[in-house]
Each structure stands twice: as C-alpha cells, then as structure tokens.
Write a structure and sequence with these properties.
- By secondary structure, the chain is mostly beta strands.
- It has no helices and eleven strands.
- A five-stranded mixed beta sheet has the order 3-11-10-6-7, with no helix packed on it.
- A hairpin with a 3-residue loop joins strand 1 and strand 2.
- It starts with a strand and ends with a strand.
Length: 135
C-alpha cells in the first residue's frame, strides 16, 4: 500500500457521483496558519491521508502519524513527539481509502511542526505545518 497524498485541511467531505464514483472535497489546505492567540497555544488541525491498495495487496494496514519538531522522522535528538496516532484500517484491494486524524498540537513558540505519516513501518511521508504570528 502507499500514501498517495497527505495534507492538513480545514474541511473534508465525500460525495457520490455517477458511476458509481466518489469525490473527495478538500477545503482550506493548510501549510501555515496564524496563531489564534499568543503562544503557548494548542491547535487541532485535520490531517487527511489518501491511501491506495494495489490489486494484489491484502488490504489490511496500520496508519501511523508522528508529529515532531524535526523534519527528519528518524532523528534521535532526544525530543519527544508532539503528537502520535496509530490506527488499523482495511481497504478493498485495487481501491482507495482515507485516514482522517485530528491532532492536538501544542506550540510553546511560533514555528513549524512535521507530521510524519507511514503505513506498516514503510517509508515516511512528511507534511509541514507552520504556526505564524496572529493577525
């Protein structure tokens, strides 16, 4: 299985169209956002990952997200993860599924965090999110 895309979003919706086929509506893709107040502050963004299972796959997997302050998921800098989520999932071989994770991310200061996503201890997909000064 593979992660096709992973993004922070404000809103995620699914709808059926002819075919039958499904459409995914992603609204407000985030790479940065203004702090709602001066740090320290906690935000709760939605991370959506789209996952594809090849036709010859078994369809069972575990999706893991580890949010850190380091761009390198394997860095051993002694710091603790900011947030972590692990969830098993099932998808029909040859099809797509999604995982929607709402993380609580604490910021002691403005800056960037990195959501490192993977399936079954496979390669990491990294998604940055930067907290900017509030407006």
């Amino acid at each position: 299985m593979q992660i096709v895309s992973a993004l922070f979003v404000e809103e995620f919706n699914m709808r059926q169209v002819e075919g039958p086929s499904t459409r995914l509506d992603l609204t407000g893709v985030l790479f940065s956002l203004p702090a709602p107040s001066a740090p320290p502050v906690t935000i709760e963004p939605h991370l959506v990952a789209l996952i594809h299972c090849p036709p010859d796959g078994d369809g069972a997997g575990v999706f893991e997200v580890v949010v850190t302050r380091s761009h390198d998921a394997e860095a051993d800098d002694g710091s603790e993860p900011v947030a972590r989520n692990v969830s098993p999932f099932q998808v029909e071989p040859g099809r797509f599924t999604y995982r929607l994770v709402r993380a609580e991310i604490a910021f002691d200061a403005l800056g960037t965090v990195y959501a490192h996503c993977r399936i079954d201890r496979g390669p990491w997909t990294t998604v940055p999110l930067t907290l900017l000064p509030g407006g």
